[in-house]
Amino acid sequence: MPKPKKRGSNHQRGAGGQSRNVQPFSDEDASIETMSHCSGFSDPASFTEDGPEVDEEATQEDLEYKLKGFIDLTLDKSAKTRQAALESLKSAFSSKILYEFIMERRMTLTDSIERCIKKGKSDEQCAAAGLACLLCVQMGSGIESEEIFKTLGPVLKKIVCDGTASIQARQACATCLGICCFIVTDDITELYSTMECLENIFTKAYQRDRDTNGVSSTHSTVLHISALLAWTLLLTICPMNEVKKKIEMHLHKLPSLLSCDDLNMRIAAGETLALLFELARETDADFFYEDMELLTEKLRALATDGNKHRAKVDKRKQRSVFRDVLRAVEERDFPTEMVKFGPERMYIDCWVKKQTYDTFKEVLGSGMQYHLQSNDFLRNVFELGPPVMLDAATLKTMKISRFERHLCNSAAFKARTKARSKCRDKRADVGEFF
């Protein structure tokens, strides 16, 4: 005869027999609780899943309660706990607009980020730098963001220039330094100082072939790429007289990076060249580049590269990018792209706008569309005007059910499979499919 179940056993004990009445952020179980809560933020879509209507106010309170716990855990003794808390905050900040919540705790967050960058190891420093970017994106350009940058700027510069720090940490700090400076600084002196810091990093790549001391090794290429892209972003907001100086300084040196073994460095150099030519022609309609023939020859070779020792995917990506770069340099043309977010559309019609969009997309990831709809700062950067306010009825009609979304994804998958099957031939030369 089966034993009767004990009353209340399902309520008092969870899976594995562990008691469920432990405080969620107690010192003894902080690490376990952090990891369990982190999973809730692993997918930004989890905030907007289909399902029955819920009390938004209660949901917001629950979210803020979790975030407060994560902020406290950034000061935990365990490095793994601190890193998990930073990653969870990053996921939340990229998926939601939390201006008011952050405004009340900006100094606490800033102190936590500063502490993690100064005293943490490589992975923790990368997570803290990424959170600093999202913190400034959330706050936008204002006095509060300037205070954050005044605190974190010197720390970021120190890590970027520290040859003993890990390459990954320096790379993350270089990206963070460029983005935060782009967002907050109204001080032209600080802008020039930050650009000089980044220049000191990526210009070492110019000397790669002549370097005999190993300073410009392949290992540091990722750092040079991040510094170059961050510097390029800041160049887009420089006064025209400074732009002219930078073009004169770098336009003759950048083509040397097109011969780099690293695909991402070649692409970064090519897109930077296209942007420099675009800015140069804006400042001077009669702009003339002396080595144009040699440069276009290099770009054309990269746009039609068929070297067998390179992977097919890399070759296709390179050819796709450099066809656009060649058109920009030779014909002053840019292939306009359209970005959809909600009921709105944004057209990327120049290299400056593309560089800015790509940078923030890298930081926000899948939350980019949400921020384009709701973030006042980003909408101001891309000249989208104030956020479009839609009533609940309109939003409900626009929302696609899970089943319809599944059908759309299935149809897109079949179409993509058919298109790719036609391109199996090695001679096919097409762009990437998304």
Essential attributes:
single chain, 434 residues, mainly alpha, Leucine-rich Repeat Variant, 3 domains, two-stranded antiparallel sheet, 19 helices, 2 strands, 2% strand, disordered N terminus, disordered C terminus
- CATH architectural grouping of the largest domain: Alpha Horseshoe
Summed over residues and divided by their number, the pLDDT gives a mean of 82
How helical, in percent, are the residues? Answer: 55-70%
Compute the number of helices: 19
* Low-pLDDT runs: 1-52, 209-217, 430-434
CATH C-level of the largest domain: Mainly Alpha
Global Rg: 25 Å
Number of strands: 2
Let me know the largest β-sheet: 2 strands, antiparallel
Per CATH, what is the topology of the largest domain? Leucine-rich Repeat Variant
Distance between the termini: 60 Å
Give the strand line-up of the largest sheet. 1-2
SSE arrangement, N to C: HHHHHHHHHHHHHHEEHHHHH
Total domain modules: 3
The portion of residues forming beta strands comes to under 5%
Task: Name the overall outline.
Answer: globular
Question: In terms of structural class, how would the helical and strand content be classed?
Answer: mainly alpha
* CATH-assigned homologous superfamily of the largest domain: Leucine-rich Repeat Variant
Protein name: Interferon-related developmental regulator 1
Biased composition (Basic residues): 1-10
Organism: Aramus guarauna
Biased composition (Acidic residues): 50-59
